[in-house]
Amino acid sequence: xxxxxxxxxxxxxxxxxxxxxxxxxxxxxxxxxxxxxxxxxxxxxxxxxxxxxxxxxxxxxxxxxxxxxxxxxxxxxxxxxxxxxxxxxxxxxxxxxxxxxxxxxxxxxxxxxxxxxxxxxxxxxxxxxxxxxxxxxxxxxxxxxxxxxxxxxxxxxxxxxxxxxxxxxxxxxxxxxxxxxxxxxxxxxxxxxxxxxxxxxxxxxxxxxxxxxxxxxxxxxxxxxxxxxxxxxxxxxxxxxxxxxxxxxxxxxxxxxxxxxxxxxxxxxxxxxxxxxxxxxxxxxxxxxxxxxxxxxxxxxxxxxxxxxxxxxxxxxxxxxxxxxxxxxxxxxxxxxxxxxxxxxxxxxxxxxxxxxxxxxxxxxxxxxxxxxxxxxxxxxxxxxxxxxxxxxxxxxxxxxxxx
Length: 404
Ligand code: MG
What we know:
By secondary structure, the chain is an alpha/beta fold. The chain is 38% helix and 16% strand. The strands form four sheets. Strands 4, 5, 7, 8, 9, 10, 11, 12, 14 and 15 form a ten-stranded mixed β-sheet that branches. Strands 1-2-3 form a three-stranded antiparallel β-sheet. The chain is globular, with a radius of gyration of 21 Å. Bound molecules: magnesium ion (MG).
């Protein structure tokens, strides 16, 4: 086969579900051969597009598509300043597209190229929410009826006033608009919620919970200890990335399994946690660290330290991003569980060949690459637009702005 080269790189912004997504399409010197990758940083999508169009495109045009690792290293070093979410997403879009292309060239799914399956499908978890513990319980049961055996449970999403959850906040006059939450009320609510669910369902379901970095470290530790009796599958984002040193304290004091990493963008953030075995699950968002190439290395690093994977899988990810996670899930012996949101009919039309969920397990198709055909013209009919992410205006009852 002659040397196939990158002919063009395009960034397509699309929001079929009202969530801003970024797709990178790499076209090659073979007329019909292209690949797509996920570069979604939903809150800052236009910055990612600029990074791809203005910087990676001119850098990589004409490069051979074979050398994925070399292209990743070149792209990461070429900005000199590196390891940030915008540039990592741009690199991810190209990286995953190149894996897609390599699979198509080989006539194999990507999971075959990276070692073959350890399991036929990946167990996924869904999100159950509710205004009170009764409603959360009903939603857990609904997912169990659909065949899911892992559910993340939240009340009022992250304990704030979303979904109409009522709180009695004691606030001074003149506080600004915001997504207010009271850490003490939140904590009591979580304990009540777990008690209700375990009393009703026993241990027939694996439960996760996301603190979403909403408590000060010692309060999060106290909650982790209180929750031990409810046997969580994991407790997520107990601390913000800025305070991970506290995980040493968690290890000494609690047996609740810890999941961490969706906000990580720099290897320095996960290295100590993995090397000191301070977490049980690594949860990075693949495109936020630069795509499949760095993620498969991270999976192997975690394997050697006995840490399992639970990649971040929210609704602000493209189906090709979900497929990239899934192909990694299937090939990782240390896979734990996969977060999953499902796809709308429109998404399935734009991204033909989305992974399919059946009885709580996510299956890839066996087509070459990531197996997804992208309808670029249809995608463009649903353009991205600036959105105010209200939940990202978190405040404490006294009006203090905090991390969400
Ligand atoms: Mg999370």
